[in-house]
Automatic annotation (TrEMBL), chains A, B:
All residue ranges annotated as the HTH tetR-type domain in the record: 11-69
GO molecular function, one term: transcription cis-regulatory region binding
UniProt cross-references to SUPFAM superfamilies, sorted A to Z: Homeodomain-like
Protein name according to UniProt: Transcriptional regulator, TetR family
DNA-binding region: 32-51
A UniProt-annotated Pfam family: TetR_N
Keywords from the named record: DNA-binding, Transcription, Transcription regulation
Length: 193, 193
DNA sequence: ACTAATTGCATCACCTGTGTTGCAGGTTTC
DNA sequence: GAAACCTGCAACACAGGTGATGCAATTAGT
């Protein structure tokens, strides 16, 4: 939770710490608080003042990232836009957030933590959007939606790994949706109805 | 490398240590040597006798796992069997190995290590098999084979995550190949040629 | 401007993991 | 069966991270 009204500079510190933690831990998950503090431009004791221990820090990190992910999904209007449009927009947004918070979002959710609640929320929204896509005929009616969702997640994750070329999110999103729906098999020559 | 002729009991120890390391580190990548030793039923000093430090241990772990993965691929006769058959067999074999050595195979390859050489070998064989599949018309001729390979890897990884139901490798492999080639979109009702 | 909050710094005690050594006793190998 | 090898155990030194504290200096809020 964002605690009681924190003073402006304190809030800046917390943000800096969370961002530093993401960057440092993404490279070395076993990095010390000292390293995180250095990256954040902050004294190690300041981290301990805000976060009692490593667990508290990673919890906050996971929660913060999950919140941003939810915002990214909501920005895609999953409930009102046509499924295909929503999926594309959501995918592009999620790619942005996930590339910025890769470590935080890969963090194993502590049971009963806020982050795990948010994760479930995210899964539900995703499942819902996929169901809408299925009702629209975009997804085969016999498909196992849970598997489809997992494949979707996997494609997003894989897109982030090898993106050294720096392709923009829209391009990546298009490829993800295309692969998710059509796979890699031969296409009927684009001539139909 | 498997060192000079190790005495039989010593070789047993090494195996036990590697397996213990896999199990323990898969749960907690930061686990101590002590924990690994306990799981292996061995004294901590014995680990240090065989592996100078943590790095040496994980290197050996990665190499050992990569070797088994290569064997799993070779057992699928990637060069002689029809591509679809080969892909299915290879996928099933790889699933077995990957589920047993998930941590070891997820290990970031040290540059110039033997494991990284093996990894490249694995990638090459995979790429080759995919090319054969493409030449056979299983994969669209315009498809980006590197992306296809990455998707394939991602599908394998995802299949391993949520396999609490304990589905057998053949079933999982079938789903992977099917999704890879056809995606989740609507299928033409099975009637034509 | 005054107050309260926040921070950096120096310092401390403490714990955990690491890597090494020596030796006695058990196991392989030939 | 003898030699060579391997292992467990105990002990040690050492490095490094952790969490806490007190204080002076800075900064935000009103």
């Amino acid at each position: 939770m964002s605690d009681k009204t924190l003073r402006a500079d304190a809030e800046r510190s917390v943000r800096a710490i969370l961002e530093a933690a993401e960057h440092v831990l993404a490279v070395d998950p076993g990095a010390s608080m000292e390293q995180i503090a250095a990256e954040a431009g902050v004294a190690r004791t300041t981290i301990h003042r805000r976060f009692a221990n490593r667990q508290a820090l990673t919890d906050a990190l996971a929660t913060s990232a999950a919140r941003q992910l939810i915002k990214a999904i909501d920005d895609g209007r999953p409930d009102t836009a046509p499924p295909l449009v929503a999926m594309h927009r959501i995918t592009a947004n999620v790619l942005e957030v996930k590339s910025a918070w890769a470590f935080a979002l890969a963090l194993p959710a502590e049971p009963d933590s806020e982050a795990s609640l948010l994760q479930r929320d995210i899964n539900d929204r995703c499942a819902l959007t996929l169901r809408r896509a299925q009702n629209d005929g975009l997804i085969d009616e016999k498909a196992d939606l849970d598997w489809v969702r997992r494949v979707y997640y996997a494609l997003i994750g894989e897109s982030l790994h090898g993106n050294a070329e720096g392709a923009d999110s829209d391009t990546l999103a298009a490829r993800i949706i295309d692969t998710l729906l059509h796979g890699a098999g031969p296409r009927p020559s684009r001539s139909a109805p």
